[in-house]
Amino acid sequence: MTMSGAVIERRVIDRPVEFRAAPEGSSSPGILGGYAAVFDQISRDLGGWFEEIAPGAFGAPIEGGALDLKLHTRVIARAEHDSRLLLGTTNAGTLRLFIDDIGLRFEIDLPNTNAGRDVAELAERGDYVFASFAFSALEADYREDADGRFIRTVLRATLHDVAPVADPAYWGASAQMQRAFDLEAARASLSPAPAEPGEREATVRSAAATMTRETHPALVNRPRKRGI
């Protein structure tokens, strides 16, 4: 189903970033790389629900396996998602993004700035061990698995930025996403109350048709509750 007014979300990937020396003669303190997103991998608990990124969510790769930036426009790299710690941009060619069988991979030519040198030092020492990405989910599907986990599969998304992070502060959804996600309503939509024998088949068909053409109840804004 297609989502309108999608919020920007952040996720941390539990795969180590890699640091290597810059080419000889370069002013860059080094190149930082890793995976910003991994396909078909169930996330950690995001507050009672889980998530996976489908292959193709960021579009098909173009020549050389690069991300098709026509679908995402400008993507930036920032340490800790902080605009004061800018590391690279796709329009300058200092941030490069690729799609392969594993997921969405990035390479950053770290700048010869305080932020760039700090990131190089911390990555080389092993202090930066996680990568994070910010995205807007444009289309998603929902299911409940055999273990009773409610899973959102992101089918199409717009990428906004990638970031090395020292602390996995974004294992869960953003506060805005948590307020928009009504887990009980989502589960109810997948597990309707038992219908009379003659009505059951028609009810299932009707619910399936509604889900394919309307926004999922999990994404409908609800009144903000105290403490959320």
TrEMBL record:
Recorded superkingdom: Bacteria
Start and end residues of each Prohead serine protease domain: 28-178
InterPro entries in alphabetical order: Peptidase_S78_dom, Prohead_protease
One function term, GO molecular function aspect: peptidase activity
Annotated region (Disordered), positions in chain: 190-228
Keyword Protease: yes
Record keywords: Hydrolase, Protease, Viral release from host cell
Keyword Hydrolase set for record: yes
One GO BP: proteolysis
Protein's name according to its UniProt entry: HK97 family phage prohead protease
